[in-house]
Amino acid sequence: MESPQNPDASQHGMVGKIADYIERSRGKPSSAPARDAALMCIFDLLGAAAVGIGDIGPRAIRNVVPAVYGDGSNPVWFTGKGSSLIGAAWANSAAAATLDLDDGNRFARGHPGAAIIPVAFAVAHETGATLEDVITAIVIGYEVGISVGAAKTSYGSSGTWTPYGVVATAAALRGTPRGVIEHALAIAGESAPSQAFASAPIPRIPAPEGSAVKEGIPWSVVTGLTALYLAEAGHTGPRNILESQRHYQFPADQVLGEIPHICATYFKPYACCRHIHAPLIALERLLAEHDIAPGGIDGIDVEIHSAGLRISNRPEPENIVDIQYSIPYCLALVSLYGRESLLPLTADALGRADVLALAGKVTLSLSPVLDAVYPQDILACVTIRVGDQHFSSGPTAPEGEPLMSWDALEVKFKTATRFVATPSRIEEMLGAIRSLRSGDATPLEHVLADLKLD
User: Fold this and answer.
1) Which strand (E) or helix (H) includes residue 82?
2) Cβ atoms of 161 and 192 closer than 8 Å
3) How are beta strands 389-392 and 74-76 bridged, if at all?
């Protein structure tokens, strides 16, 4: 492959720095903490994908994949079927992202794993990459995607910045030349899903209806991989895109990979937006500490940062995605049915009269104090009113950050997959992950290609 025209044009820009980081880092072993974090991210992501395989969005994409991207041997996870590289990565990303159980990074304000890990596996299938090369590529993808997402001057849904991570991951495994990487990053950045409706600042009038599009993560996979192919074919992009101070502000002293972003990943104990997790933890603690009966609750007051008020927060959700972005409904659901009602979220959570009644008693308000520390700290305060008694939490943080223990991830995996897999299949998947940790990827490759859950 030859580099596109003027390969030295952006040597000193951020795109050039990112391309240089990818070129320097690929093929090298990751640090022990980054390697372990990547393995954890793979484990967590596969659980999210297994749970999401039957949702309407992933099903629709799998139905479309053969016509758009053709058949192939690249595994479409948990279906026993295959597609082309892009088709498989698209479908697997959709399954992983659909139920909001995938990992995230609060500084980028979104979800890298559901884009990067499916791409790493799909490209590795085509290139025959080693497990260590895959792990390094995932670490690189998280580093690049999160760095760009965190530098955005205004909020953008995950799909607006994950294409950078997709390009980085795929380019690391494909050995793409530095000059081509620069153009691929630029093409991906300029072609990324705009998510103008979902990313709009508050007040969003109307709030977006919950839909399978969500944050555009699966489409960002298609965008990023297509951008790389285009750059390899000679297509060009605006390599000064990240110099736009209107849209990006990178730290002057930023050194990519110095403290790997993947080590700051958060994992979700609930299948809903991360902004809901701190209120949920505060609520659960208050219910337990004060032995509060849900039927006696007269009101739940939530103080939160402005980003928590940006999500739709419908007290009467019309679909599963609406629930994923509703503080009132999620608090009511967990109050009445416990945290397992959100691990995973299922269709029978919709339209429950008792949940709707309690959700109508939840009030949300902005806390200037909590807003001032976001996203350095993501906190919420909850007060439960029972008659003339008020039970209040202090500022409460969500669980699962940074990372979780392997034992906690295994508990999460078993709980989340209990409706989609038999105990023997769950154990088969867990065994494959244990083999992966010891350096043997073969059992996991078999599980992803041959184990059917749909």
Assistant:
1) strand 81-83
2) yes
3) unpaired
Cβ burial, residue 454 (10 Å; 0-12/13-18/19+)? middle
**Is the peptide bond prior to 398 cis by the omega test (within 30 degrees of 0)?**
no
Which amino acid is present at 27? G
The pLDDT, as a whole number, for residue 7 is 45
- Could you tell me which residues come within 8 angstroms of residue 415 by beta carbon, excluding any fewer than 6 positions away? 340, 343
| Alpha carbon 350 to chain centroid, angstroms | 23
Matching residue, tokens 């969003």: 204
Class at the top of the CATH hierarchy for domain 14-267: mainly alpha
pLDDT in tens, 252-292: 989 999 999 999 999 999 999 999 999 999 999 999 999 99
- Mean pLDDT over 161-174 rounds to 98
Element (H, E) at 63: helix 56-69
| H or E, element range at 74 | strand 74-76
Token output for 35: 């390697």
Phi, psi of 254 (to 5 degrees): -65, 130
Question: What does the pLDDT look like over 229-246, one tens digit per residue?
Answer: 999 999 999 999 999 999
The whole-angstrom separation of Cα 326 and Cα 206 is 15
Q: d(Cα 30, Cα 75) in Å, to the nearest integer? A: 26
Contact status, residue 453 vs residue 420, Cβ threshold 8 Å: yes
Please answer whether residues 400 and 274 qualify as being in contact, where contact means their C-beta atoms are separated by less than 8 angstroms: no
First to last CA, the chain: 39
Where do runs of H (alpha helix) occur along 319-453? 320-324, 327-337, 353-359, 368-373, 406-416, 423-437, 442-450
Q: What's the CATH number for 274-396?
A: 3.30.1330.120
E strand or H helix that includes residue 75: strand 74-76
- Distance, in Å, from the CA atom of 320 to the CA atom of 297, rounded to the nearest integer, reads 25
Cα separation values, 201 from 159, 191, 309, Å: 16, 21, 10
Do 239 and 16 meet the contact criterion of CB atoms below 8 Å apart? yes
Sorted by where each begins, the domain ranges of the chain are 14-267, 274-396
Give strand ranges (E) for 274-422.
Answer: 299-304, 362-366, 380-386, 389-392
Exposed e or buried b per residue across 374-408, where buried means at least 16 C-beta atoms within 10 angstroms of its C-beta: beeebbbbbbbbeeeeebebeebebbbbebbeeee
Spatial contact of 48 and 102, defined as CB atoms under 8 Å apart = yes
Closest CA to 34 of 378, 402, 409, 448: 402
